[in-house]
Structures are given as structure tokens and as C-alpha cells.
Design goal:
Layout: H1 11-17, H2 25-45, H3 49-65, H4 72-79, H5 82-94, E1 130-139, E2 150-154, E3 175-179, E4 185-191, E5 196-197, H6 203-210, E6 216-217, E7 220-226, E8 233-239, E9 258-259, E10 262-263, E11 272-275, E12 278-280
Length: 283
């Protein structure tokens, strides 16, 4: 028979009630709920001081690794399914018909180069499945084209590395910003994405190793789409042929985001084509 422990029954309430009356109502509610769940978790699992110090060091390690080129904290949340869950909650609650969101991931960078429609985001890579991608950005309610939508794209090279991970790639390779005109259309050349492992040299990789989980992400291209008067969409498109497409180490795949790269003929710049329309909801 397991031993029953008696802890101070008033401690958690004292922590929650320490919040002052001038605090933001939403913040007060969230922190109170978080505090109660964390305290209950510690009591339920009999978390020791040693357990606590190891957890804090994992978070601190994540912070030390993070910079403007890699967000290890975000990756740690990803492998726990937290960002994917929050994306699902946001999408279900909004119920606005927008393209489904999914994780930002750790390798988004600000100030990607602005490019013209029809440009290529690929530089210095000759061996790869070159793809012509096109489509429209549409209003989720009316179906009308969205003008001045900025599409931010990023993906890995065929070696599974983003440019900031790979000294052999030029800065900002496989990234670009494209702005739609009045017809809402976009087009550019990219690479058919490849499957890859998340980095294993940090706390996220260590946690997966300790949990006996794989580190693979299915082939995907990242997108962030913003337009005046509309909510920003952060999402990914996943290659249906990838064996990890429904076994993603960060649980980011949604059925509506799984796509088919089709053969493209009579285009010397690309062997594949992908057409996809993004839908934005008004802010």
C-alpha cells in the first residue's frame, strides 16, 4: 500500500491570492490556473528538489542556446506538442475559415529578402527537386483575392539543413518575402522539401532521446502570411509521399496541409509543381 503524504492545504491558495487587484484580468486568470496545475502536478508526482533543478537547468540551457537564428525554447515546446495544441485551440475557437495554422518551429528568421513574383528562393544548389509553386491568397469569408499579402517562405536544403545551420549555404538561402497584387496570386521557385531530423545537440533532442522517441520531421515548407486588416497565418505544407507525414516528432501535421507535388513538363527550371490557395480571416 502506497504511503499517503500530507502537504500544506493552504499553500497554493496563498500563491494564487498574492496577485494584486491591478493585474490584467486575463493574465490573472491564466497564471492562477497555471499555478494550480503546476502545484498539483508536483504533488501528484512527488517532484523532488533534484527533479526541479534538472528541469530548470533544461529550460536555462534552452535559453542559452536561443538567438535570432535558432529558437530552442520553441523547439522544446514543439516536441512536447504544446505549440501544435495551442494552434489547434486557436483555430477551433476562431472558427473563421482560415487556413489551418501549425508550428512556427525554431528556424524562422526576420528580414528575409524581398523577391519578385516568379523568382527562385534557391541559391547555390544544383541537385534537388526544383518546384514551381503558385496559388492565391484569399479572404476566408468572401473568397475575394487579398492584395498586399506578404508571404514569408522558408525551407531546408536537400541535406535537411536550414541555411543558418549550414556553412556551405549563403545567408538567407531558401527564404523569401513575396507580396501579392490585386489578383492575390503568388508564384515562385523552391525545392520539393525533404525529411530531416530536428537538432539533437540541445535540450529538445536530449528529451527525445531520454523518452526513446524519434527526431524526424516530415518534408515540409514553412509559411507566414500577413496582410493589412487580416489575422496572420503561420503554417506549413507537408509532402504526402513522406513516410513521417503522420508520424511527426512535433505533431504539427494537419490533413488539410498535406499536399501532392505533381510532375511539371516543359519547364526547364523545375521538375515539380504545387498549387495551393491560402485563406486569411479578417482581424
Amino acid at each position: 500500500m502506497s504511503r499517503q503524504y500530507q502537504f500544506d492545504p493552504n499553500f497554493t491558495n496563498a500563491v494564487v491570492n498574492a496577485t494584486g487587484p491591478k493585474s490584467d484580468a486575463r493574465l490573472r486568470k491564466i497564471v492562477a490556473s497555471l499555478t494550480r496545475h503546476l502545484h498539483d502536478f508536483c504533488r501528484e508526482n512527488l517532484i523532488t528538489a533534484d527533479d526541479f533543478r534538472k528541469a530548470i537547468e533544461l529550460l536555462n540551457w534552452s535559453g542559452r542556446m536561443s538567438d535570432d537564428k535558432r529558437n530552442e525554447g520553441n523547439l522544446l515546446a514543439n516536441v512536447l506538442g504544446l505549440e501544435a495544441l495551442v494552434d489547434e485551440i486557436s483555430h477551433v475557437v476562431a472558427d473563421d475559415g482560415a487556413t489551418e495554422p501549425t508550428v512556427l518551429g525554431p528556424f524562422w528568421r526576420e528580414n528575409a529578402p524581398r523577391r519578385s513574383m516568379g523568382d527562385s528562393i534557391v541559391s547555390g544548389i544544383e541537385a534537388g527537386d526544383f518546384t514551381f509553386m503558385s496559388g492565391r491568397v484569399l479572404d476566408a469569408s468572401t473568397g475575394e483575392p487579398v492584395e498586399k499579402a506578404v508571404i514569408d517562405i522558408w525551407e531546408t536544403a536537400p541535406n535537411g539543413k536550414y541555411e543558418q545551420q549550414d556553412p556551405y549555404q549563403v545567408d538567407m538561402n531558401l527564404r523569401g518575402l513575396f507580396t501579392t497584387g490585386k489578383d492575390g496570386t503568388y508564384s515562385f521557385y523552391c525545392l520539393r522539401p525533404t525529411t530531416y531530423s530536428i537538432p539533437v545537440d540541445g535540450p529538445a533532442g536530449l528529451l527525445l532521446q531520454l523518452l526513446d522517441r524519434h527526431t524526424m520531421r516530415p518534408a515540409h515548407i514553412h509559411f507566414m502570411i500577413q496582410a493589412p486588416g487580416y489575422k496572420t497565418i503561420i503554417t506549413e505544407l507537408f509532402d504526402r509521399r513522406d513516410k513521417h507525414v503522420f508520424d511527426d516528432s512535433v505533431f504539427a501535421v494537419r490533413n488539410s496541409l498535406v499536399v501532392d507535388f505533381l510532375p511539371l513538363e516543359d519547364n526547364p527550371k523545375a521538375q515539380f509543381q504545387l498549387q495551393y490557395d491560402f485563406k486569411l480571416a479578417k482581424a
